[in-house]
Write a structure and sequence with these properties.
Layout (H helix, E strand, L loop, with lengths): L1 H23 L6 E5 L6 H17 L3 E5 L6 H8 L7 E6 L1 H9 L10 E10 L2 E5 L7 H10 L5 E4 L5 H13 L4 E4 L3 H9 L5 E2 L3 H9 L3 E6 L26 E8 L4 H15 L2 H7 L5 E2 L4 H21 L7
Parallel strand pairs: 1-2, 1-3, 6-7, 6-8
Antiparallel strand pairs: 3-10, 4-10, 4-11, 5-8, 5-9
Helix pairs in contact: 1-9, 2-9, 4-11
Length: about 325
Amino acid sequence: MKRRALLQAAPALALAPWTAVRAQGFPDKPIRYIVPVAAGGGSDLIARTLTDRWAKALNATFLVDNQSGGGGVVAAQVTMRAAPDGYTLMQGYVATHGTSPATRKLPYDAVKDFSPIGMIGATPNVLVVDANLPVKNFKEFVAWLNANKGKVSYGSAGPGSLTHLTMELLKQQLHVPMVHIPYRGIAPAITDVIGGQTQAMFPGLAAALQHIRSGRLRPIALTGSKRAAQIPDVPTLEELGLKNFDAMQWYGIVGPANMPREVVARLNATLNQVLAAPDMREKLSTEAVEPLPMTPEAFGKYYQQDIARWTALVKAQNLKIEG
């Protein structure tokens, strides 16, 4: 019996030293850093800003690989199929590991198929209205909605997007109907709010900020647990008494499932070191992103809770999302 137990344990015993050796020498070759969007946008800027600094902290080379398509599905599939050795990482975000798993059938499991590495940071969504509306604050907005039931429409970046689900959460709590007008991306949705074709929406702060500053959009309230430095006079929805509005547009890092614990720990420690630097905070602020360093365990729990939050909303609101 002892011999049988020893033979059964042999594979695990053999693996442990190999894992330790691999982790000790990690990294000894370039790291592929997959970004699930095309080059040039805000997410890509975050990726290149981060990896430039992370490379120095880790004494490694990062190769940024833009894999757009399917709202992050292409990138997620490439990542989950890679060897779990720490040399393929992905910049996951609220769509790949939050809203999409809650609203669609995907060819990957956002929890089981990935190893959480750490959070990068998050930016709030901001409730904005057409600047020509007779609405100056949230109280007036709610009164105006109630006075115009059945006449109000809101735009989103697409069905099942964070901009869509956040407004559905608001509808749920205010018990006021609004018609959803989905667009193919955030830019045309914002254009139609400014032009008066729709009356309100919930874009990310970075996308809305230039239009807020120009006076073409009026900010009413923010998601998140605290006010944004860029628009400090705008209250959070939590301040205004609404619940579960700590939802954010977030960015984090995942790898394939079953990565060695020691490799994950090294990646996480150096990532958090980079995020703690004042110049990194300043760089991320251009995208209105606040650094949010976390342990791998905390980050994994964070996106599991995000998936659960939006899954519950989709069911409660009976949302039918195709694709």
